[in-house]
Inverse folding.
């Protein structure tokens, strides 16, 4: 068995966020479903950008945010995802490497430009996302190096990978490589509408053991089991997933196994500014705990701390060292 | 006399900020003078960017930030500055127009890329800036439309315009157009090192009445008169400037005329995050007050409120409506 080089390796859509504050009526006018992610084409992207207020650009992408969070905790992290060799692609690559993440995926030299997510933040801090996948659609199984995957204790995959054509095959190849090397595979369900698009496939991944660890929020879980009953959904989840973590915003999370349901409270915050990245950073903290062999409650505390940091400022990546923050809050893996 | 179409028209370097949090030792290692702006060439820009941590991109430029602040107060605003027709140039143009500012300067189609400022924020919230002027160097007197200038109650110019080759001539042309139309001209001294580069010329602009209103911080004022004695500098300023406002960070500001020195306190804040844009937004509030004919103390309160908003988050432009903030704080022009 090869030695572990990375605590967590993430695979996901490589995206730059384009973020604006907005009023509720903007979402209504532009027919956006608040709090969710919609896939858009280039024409719609141009239309939304033209209508948006002043923006801030910040590297994003769900799994990429998570992996940057993992690195911010001082853990060893790698990311696989596709950008184009253009201005925003250079920004994405700079930012993830500057965060201490190994990122070696070859950028596309032609085809669509680097993916962008137009994020609208309403006064309540909720974010509504519109993603133009662009170059991220070109992530291909040949971008997956089984040797690299085999050197990661956990390979973390985002449900959003089911959207680009070839990325699904890259996902399956990576999961197989991880299991062949005796490693773990984690999946985030990403978004309630994403779950709605790929419900049967996600359930299949869980039931067949293609994924060992599942992250979901309450909305995604309810979408997965097509129920409004949270407890009923948890009951079904215990049959389908070996290990799952379900986030419930300010109510914290529950850690779910066949034999246990462990609640962990959220971390208190001063002011909710922008929920973008909350779930991503939650996963980062939890994965760091798992990689260090912490108990479920400690994993949940790391997770809650990271989520609390990211929702108190605009942007989906931590603005301070999560390692230092954990130390300051008496948390040790 | 033509009617007033803009309360404030700003002319300055059109720049996109590339912002990272950093530790003090980064500044030492890269030989940066904390709290100041250094001009850098493309090679140095590449070197600094490669060494910087993860960044956020946000439209900037001193006068541009001020003008966006003016618009955020609900006043009528216009900006003149040069970008290239490239990704960051498009971002700059989008952001300033989305803020409600008239921006019609023709972008360069060749030559250097859109200007970037690499901003390093230390844990104390202070910012240290490195500017690659790029396309901003191509601002030319032909970009100045005297008719447009004549329709602005106040034309606001940044001292930084003395750096690009042709912008100085554009500055002088604009000041003349404003005075020919019976309007006011305001100048910010921009930066202590900028003052050091152009001390004699800035004093000449003030003494000859090319500018009617001067904005400076304490460091710039001391640099202007090459003294460490604040009160002595104020004494000299009263002889040289018709009207001046000197900011003193948390000590607020003093409004200076030949016959009066009026102190106005700073606005209280919860947490200092990033001082980038503090002076720019201070000027915005003050100019809005002046454009509405408010008394000096009221102008100073608008200014202090806008500065307080921008230093409580990362980035040099307001993240909430300054008009709404003013109303919430009982301020009316």
């Amino acid at each position: 068995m090869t030695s572990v080089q990375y605590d967590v390796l993430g695979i996901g859509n490589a995206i730059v966020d384009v973020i604006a504050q907005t009023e509720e009526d903007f979402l209504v006018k532009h027919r956006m479903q608040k709090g969710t992610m919609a896939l858009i084409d280039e024409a719609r992207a141009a239309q939304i950008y033209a209508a948006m207020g002043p923006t801030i650009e910040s590297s994003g992408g769900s799994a990429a945010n998570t992996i940057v969070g993992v690195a911010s905790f001082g853990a060893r992290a790698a990311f696989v995802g596709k950008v184009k060799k253009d201005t925003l692609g250079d920004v994405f690559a700079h930012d993830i490497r500057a965060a201490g993440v190994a990122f070696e995926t070859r950028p596309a030299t032609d085809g669509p430009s680097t993916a962008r997510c137009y994020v609208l933040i309403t006064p309540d801090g909720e974010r509504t996302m519109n993603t133009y996948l662009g170059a991220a659609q070109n992530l291909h199984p040949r971008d997956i190096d089984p040797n690299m995957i085999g050197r990661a204790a956990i390979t973390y995959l985002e449900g959003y990978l089911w959207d680009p054509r070839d990325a699904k095959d890259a996902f399956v190849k990576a999961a197989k490589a991880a299991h062949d090397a005796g490693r773990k595979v984690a999946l985030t369900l990403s978004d309630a509408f994403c779950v709605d698009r790929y419900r049967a496939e996600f359930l299949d991944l869980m039931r067949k053991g293609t994924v060992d660890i599942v992250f979901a929020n309450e909305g995604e879980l309810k979408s997965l089991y097509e129920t409004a009953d949270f407890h009923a959904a948890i009951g079904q989840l215990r049959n389908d997933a070996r290990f799952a973590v379900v986030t419930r915003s300010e109510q914290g999370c529950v850690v779910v196994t066949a034999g246990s349901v462990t609640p962990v409270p959220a971390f208190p915050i001063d002011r909710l500014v922008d929920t973008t990245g909350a779930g991503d950073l939650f996963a980062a903290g939890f994965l760091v705990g798992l990689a260090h062999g912490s108990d479920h409650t400690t994993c949940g505390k790391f997770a809650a701390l990271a989520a609390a940091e990211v929702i108190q400022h605009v942007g989906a990546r931590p603005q301070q060292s999560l390692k230092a923050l954990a130390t300051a809050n008496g948390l040790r893996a």
Observations:
- The longest helix of chain B spans residues 192-207.
- Chain B has a mean pLDDT of 96.
- The interface with chain A takes residues 20-21, 49-50, 52-59, 68, 86-88, 91, 94-96, 98-99, 313-315, 317, 319-320 of chain B (CB under 8 Å).
